[in-house]
UniProtKB/TrEMBL annotation:
Belongs to the MYST (SAS/MOZ) family. Signal peptide: none annotated. It is an enzyme of class 2 (transferase). GO terms for molecular function: histone acetyltransferase activity. SUPFAM superfamilies: Acyl-CoA N-acyltransferases (Nat), Chromo domain-like. Its EC number is 2.3.1.48. This is histone acetyltransferase. GO terms for biological process: regulation of DNA-templated transcription. PANTHER family: HISTONE ACETYLTRANSFERASE. Keywords: Acetylation, Transferase. It comes from the Eukaryota.
Length: 458
């Protein structure tokens, strides 16, 4: 016999609960549509709120009778995090999606329970629930250490964009449904009228405050330096950027810093692991803009730390501009800069899930393109050190790319070689498709400076 409640009693207790009975941070089983298929998944309740009230009964004119005034039903919706999933997928769900409280097997004394029966039940539960608990353990720890999303949507240019993550904007409220951000100077406000007035009368900025270093068709990339001075209040400075005639160099530097801080706040809405928001003075920012008759529209960006061996710190493409190849184009740009600075590039870690996919696909594409070249078609093997110098990709990234597909060998003495996939009979590499956009190096108007190279170690 099992002491305490039986399994059937526990199951009945869970089934009897409603979503409104669930406590914050308690785990539940809910319905979720994944790839057009309805599945049972594990989730954690983060918060709940009252929906618009629904009236149980009223007359033909929409008036509530005296006897029915107490029948206004309050309905809730619930904000949940799905176990093992990225936080950008957190969403509001209805109470109808609730199935039961998550099983709490630790509450049952399993000391004398039949081992085979226990294992069978556990396997059935694990197969039924899309939990991915082992994969998501680190992400769950990261979620608990970071604040919940505080801005539901932003109005940016012609788009209203759903936000993914928390960003430390200085807001009047703890959380807002909509934040208005000027796409030119990045001023932000919760007040629609103030925002409209700013666009109509105040903002004189037409493009990012830096030199454009790349231009092809309707694409421009601007290089903007973080300032040497920090601002204490990121929302207190006037939003226009005076020319060199209108203000001293120190004020211009502060305003550049102000712009970069707001750029980081914007990026943080879509980058989970980003911590840089106000300490921008040692960073350079590269902004990709779509250009039309209405001006420059920020679509994507990446940052790079000065004197760093990393050729990229953070990269972000706004959701409304994704699937256009802009992220990959910026990755190509960062490596072209590394080549001109004469050092093998590598991005800063940790990766986001989307970032890891993008980089691994890019590295494999570059390496396979290299072996497809006429000079390499009959070369059987290349050392990782030589390959690093030839393609400009860090040797560790080369090993991480070619090792899992069986094209890397370790020789005596610590030397690694990469086998030519064209000549390796055992190789069956699934080739990634080419980038939607290819960087044309002749349009890059940029030369490496001292701070574009890593510091030399004594």
């Amino acid at each position: 016999m099992i002491e305490g409640k039986s399994d059937s009693a526990i199951g009945t207790e869970r089934a009897a609960a409603s979503m409104n009975d669930v406590k914050i941070n308690e785990r539940v089983v809910v319905w979720r549509v994944v790839n057009n298929e309805k599945r049972r998944v594990l989730a954690t309740l983060l918060k709940k709120r009252i929906c618009e009230p629904k009236i149980a009964s009223c007359d033909l004119h929409g008036k509530i009778g005296k006897e029915d005034r107490g029948t206004i039903q309050e309905e809730y919706e619930y904000f949940v995090h799905f176990d093992g999933q990225d936080r950008r997928l957190d969403q509001w769900i209805s109470g109808e999606q609730f199935i039961e409280l998550a099983p709490k097997l630790s509450t049952v004394d399993i000391g004398v329970c039949d081992v085979r029966l226990r294992r069978k039940r556990r396997r059935e539960n694990e197969d039924e629930l899309l939990s991915l608990e082992e994969i998501g353990a680190q992400k769950d720890h990261h979620r608990k250490a970071h604040p919940e999303k505080n801005i539901e949507k932003i109005v940016f240019g012609r788009y209203e964009i759903q936000c993914w993550y928390y960003s430390p904007y200085r807001l009047k409220k703890k959380a807002v449904d909509r934040l208005f951000i000027c796409q030119n100077c990045l001023l932000y406000t919760e007040d629609r009228r103030r925002f409209a007035c700013h666009l109509a009368n105040d903002c004189k900025q037409m493009c990012p405050p830096g030199e454009h270093i790349y231009e092809e068709n309707n694409i421009k990339v601007y290089e903007v330096f973080g300032a040497l001075e920090k601002l204490l209040d990121t929302n207190s400075v006037h939003t226009s950027y005076p020319s060199s005639i209108d203000c001293p160099a120190s004020l211009r530097m502060a305003k550049l810093n102000f712009y970069c801080q707001r750029l980081c706040l914007l990026a943080k809405l879509f980058i989970d692991h980003k911590t840089l928001c106000f300490d921008v003075e040692n960073f350079i920012f590269y902004l990709l803009c779509e250009v039309d008759d209405d001006g420059n529209h920020i679509a994507a960006m990446f940052s790079k730390e000065m004197y760093s061996a990393n050729n990229l710190a953070c990269i972000m493409t706004l959701p409304c501009y994704q699937r256009k190849g802009y992220g990959n184009l910026l990755i190509q740009l960062s490596y072209e800069m590394s080549k001109r600075a004469k050092y093998p590039g590598t991005p800063e870690r940790p990766f986001s899930d989307l970032g890891e996919i993008s980089y691994k696909k890019y590295w494999l594409w570059v390496l396979l393109e290299f072996f497809d070249s006429n000079a390499m078609r009959k070369v059987e093997d290349v050392t990782v050190d030589d390959l690093e110098a030839l393609v400009g990709i860090n040797k560790e990234d080369i090993k991480d790319t070619m090792g899992p597909i069986g094209l890397l060998s370790h020789l005596k003495g610590g030397t690694y070689i990469v086998h030519n996939p064209k000549l390796d009979q055992d190789s069956s590499v699934e080739r990634p498709g080419p980038p939607l956009r290819r960087l044309n190096a002749k349009y890059l108007m940029w030369n490496a400076k001292t701070f574009d190279r890593p510091k030399r170690r004594n």
